Amino acid sequence: MERSAVSTREVPITQAPAPLRPRPRDILELLKPITWFPPMWAFMCGAVSSGAGLDGRWLFVLGGVLLAGPLVCGTSQAVNDWFDRHVDAINEPDRPIPSGRIPGRWGLYIAIMATIISGVVAWLLGPLVFVAALVGLALAWGYSAPPFRFKTSGWTGPAVVGLTYEGLSWFTGAAVILGAMPRAEVLIVLVLYSLGAHGIMTLNDFKAVEGDRATGLRSLPVILGVTPAARFACAVMALAQIAVIALLAYWGLTLSALIVGGVLLAQFAAMPRLLGNPKRYAPWYNGVGVTLYVLGMLAAALGLGGYI
After folding, report:
1. pLDDT tens track for 100-155
2. Residues 146-166, buried b or exposed e (16+ Cβ, 10 A)?
3. Which residue, of 23, 49, 146, 247, is most buried by count of CB atoms within 10 Å of its CB?
C-alpha cells in the first residue's frame, strides 16, 4: 500500500516572525526602572532642602518625580542601549534591543519620544525646571551618542552622570517646590554631592573592567588600575562630604553636620574591605557605602530645609 505524498514530505520548521513593535514589558525593561531611584532620591532631597511647604504643590511634586525618574533617567537608558546595541549583541545579547524584542529602529524611536515627553512635562513644571531638564537630556544623549560619547572617558563620563543624577535632580526638586531659583546654600551643597557622585560612578565601572578594555572604554579602573581607582573613588566621595560637613557647621546646622559626619565615619569603617580587594568588594561597597552617602544627602537636605 502506497504512502501518500503528504505523509512523506518533510514539513519545514519556521521561526516565529520578529515582532513589528515592542511589547510594553520590553519597553519597561529598556527604561530600566532600577536606575530611577538615585535621581528620584535626589529630587526628594531637593524638595526637602527648599524649606517650602508642599501645600497645593503635590501635582508638581508628582510631576517632578516622574520627570527625574521614568522620563529623563529612562530616556538616558534608552539612548545608552540604542548606541551600545552592537556591543550588547556580543556581551549581553538578551537585552531588549539585541535580542530583537525591540525590533528595527524602535529603540531609537523610544529614546526620541521619551525626550519629547520629558521636555513637555518639564515645560509644564516651570521655566527653571524646563532649562534643567534640557541640560539633563542633552547630557543623556551626549553621554552615549557620537560624536561626544562622554562615557568613553573615565573622567568625563562619571562627572556627567553625577551632575545629571544628583545635581540636576536636586535642583529640580527645589525649583519645583519654590517656583524660583534655590538659594545659594542649596546650590553649593547639591554641587558638592554631584562632585562626590563621581566616585560612585567610578565604583560602578569595576564590574566591566575587561569589557571596557576590549571595547576601548577608558574607565578609571582601566586608566589608573583597579586599586588606585578605588582609592580615588573613596577620596572623591569623602572630600565632598567633608566640605558639606564644614559648610553645614559654618551655617549653624549642627545636628545636620553631625549626622553627615556620622555616616562618613561609617563609610571610612567600610573602606578597608573595599580597598583590600576592589574588584571583589566594589558591589558590596556600592550597597553599603553608597547607601550611607545618600542618607547623608538627606540629612544635609533636612538641615537646609530647617527640619533638623
Report:
1. 999 999 999 999 999 999 999 999 999 999 999 999 999 999 999 999 999 999 99
2. eebebbbbbebbbbbbbbbbb
3. 49
* DSSP bridge pairs for 153: 218
Cell, residue 255: 545636628
Q: How many angstroms separate the CA atoms of 60 and 72, rounded?
A: 16
Please report the pLDDT score of residue 5 as a whole number. Answer: 43
Q: Give the sign of the dihedral formed by CA 26, CA 31, CA 32, CA 34.
A: negative
Whether the CB-CB separation of 219 and 209 falls below 8 Å is answered with yes
pTM for the predicted model, two decimal places: 0.89
**Separation of alpha carbons 125 and 136, rounded Å:** 15
pLDDT at 227 over 90: yes
φ and ψ at residue 207, rounded to 5 degrees: -75, -10
Going by pLDDT thresholds of 50, 70 and 90, the confidence category of residue 1 is: very low
Question: Tell me, what's the pLDDT at 8?
Answer: 41
What grid cell was written down for 258?
553631625
Segment 144-155, tens digit of pLDDT: 999 999 999 999
Q: CB atoms < 10 A from the CB of 238, how many?
A: 18
- The topology (CATH level 3) of 20-182 is Tetracycline Repressor; domain 2 (1.10.357)
Task: Say which residues have a Cβ less than 8 Å from residue 176's Cβ, sequence separation at least 6.
Answer: 43, 46, 47, 57, 60, 61, 63, 64, 125, 126, 129
Cell numbers standing for residue 8: 512523506
pLDDT for res 2:
41
Domain boundaries, the chain: 20-182, 183-308
Signed CA dihedral, 109, 111, 114, 119: sign only: negative
Nearest to 194 by CA among 150, 244, 228: 244
